[in-house]
Amino acid sequence: MKIIIDSNRVIASLIKDSTTRKIIFDGFFEFFAPEHIKNEIAEHREEIIKKIGINSNEFDILVSMIFENITIIPQKEYNQFIYSLKNEIKDLDDVPYLAVYKVVNAEGLWTHDIHFKEQKKFRIMTNSDLLKLANKVNKEG
């Protein structure tokens, strides 16, 4: 199942070994993100390092491990959708996520960002939604 992952979920997985991190490493979902997600993570680098009490090297290793489970879509592949999606969401930093959704024909966008819930064209999913979906399929399969 193709899911777009928002930077807030990646940051949450970096900060704490929690449900979010478990979902990323579970292997049940196929995660995708726009190229600029790495810039968003870099913007919060020092804050995350300080918050979790690790050094720069350890942070790089953790980021690398998490991104092994996320396919990064280059901007040139989703650029064609940016303009047409600008009116779909208030926060323009979120537009690339919607564009990647279209490119990979995703089944959902995993986020806890309220801006995404304001639009109605794309399926927004939370941790609960993903856990329910994975449990449902595991019980059926």
Shape summary: globular
Query: What's the CATH superfamily, by name?
Result: 5'-nuclease
- Mean of all residue-level pLDDT scores: 93
**Widest β-sheet, arrangement of strands:** 3-2-1-4-5
What is the CA–CA distance across the termini? 14 Å
Please, how many domains? 1
Strand elements, count: 5
Report the structural category: alpha/beta
Rg on CA atoms, Å: 15 Å
The biggest sheet amounts to: 5 strands, parallel
In the CATH scheme, what's the topology name? Rossmann fold
Order of helices and strands: EHHEHHHEHHEHEH
CATH structural architecture = 3-Layer(aba) Sandwich
Q: Which spans of ≥5 residues are poorly predicted at pLDDT below 50?
A: none
Topology:
Layout (H helix, E strand, L loop, with lengths): L1 E4 L1 H9 L3 H8 L3 E5 L2 H7 L1 H8 L3 H12 L2 E4 L1 H11 L9 H10 L3 E3 L3 H4 L6 E2 L1 H14 L1
Parallel strand pairs: 1-2, 1-4, 2-3, 4-5
